[in-house]
Design goal:
5 helices; binds 1,3,4-trihydroxy-5-OXO-cyclohexanecarboxylic acid; about 35% helix; alpha/beta; 6 strands; Rossmann fold; six-stranded mixed β-sheet
Length: about 160
């Protein structure tokens, strides 16, 4: 499967705040892909945990994974017209290459947190540079799938300040 969308059917009556979680290339293989680096949790289990975390406070959490740069750019652009309030993104390998995806996030001006399962600073030198970190609200890396939960907690605090 090259693309995975887990989004409930749009409900015109649904005025819940929305958070979009974007996953870049090869993250559809989580669980089987280099588990000693990325852990054993699948993308599906990460998504379910985040969806439940959002549901508990009345926030709709949607996830989208693509191996294609253009599709990720398109998804960021649609997020603006859909009223998405916050984005959590693991751009995966595009972290280190994609000016196009960075420009899309800058263009829509939706605040975002960058997440990496592995500690990109303790690996090959080409992973140390991110095209996203300087325009992100924050960056979480090296905490495995827990990083997504922490990012979501931070995003929830920012869209639902109480
Ligand atoms: C990653 C780190 C990237 O360098 C790599 O290309 C990935 C995953 C991470 O979550 O640790 O695909 O973003």
């Amino acid at each position: 499967m090259s693309k995975q969308t887990r989004t409930k059917k749009p409900d015109p009556q649904n005025s819940k705040p929305r958070i979009l979680v974007l996953h870049g290339p090869n993250l559809n293989l989580l669980g089987a892909r280099e588990p000693e680096i990325y852990g054993r949790n699948t993308l599906e289990s990460i998504h379910r945990a985040m969806e439940a975390q959002g549901r508990a406070v009345g926030v709709q959490v949607e996830s989208y994974q693509s191996n294609s740069e253009g599709e990720l750019v398109d998804r960021v652009q649609s997020a603006a017209s859909e009223g998405v309030q916050f984005i959590i993104i693991n751009p995966a390998a595009y972290t280190h290459t994609s000016i196009a995806l960075r420009d899309a996030l800058a263009a829509v001006a939706i605040p975002f947190i960058e997440v990496h399962l592995s500690n990109i600073h303790s690996r090959e030198s080409f992973r140390k540079h991110s095209y996203f970190s300087d325009i992100a609200v924050g960056v979480i890396c090296g905490l495995g799938s827990e990083g997504y939960e922490l990012a979501l907690a931070a995003a929830l605090a920012r869209i639902n300040p109480t």
